[in-house]
Give the backbone structure.
Amino acid sequence: MGLGHKILNKAQEMAGKVKEETGKATSDASLQADRVNNQAEARAKQAGEYAKDATKDITGQK
């Protein structure tokens, strides 16, 4: 997985955490729900990147 993708995925995950905390502080259920979506999307992207890396390792590609 490229460093750029790792950074973008982690940033998206962190944005979800910020929304969650903001939602808790303001009792905004919508922000709390957005957190779930952001974090799930970021984790799915990370899993896809890890799968690509694993395939490259198995096939010997760079």
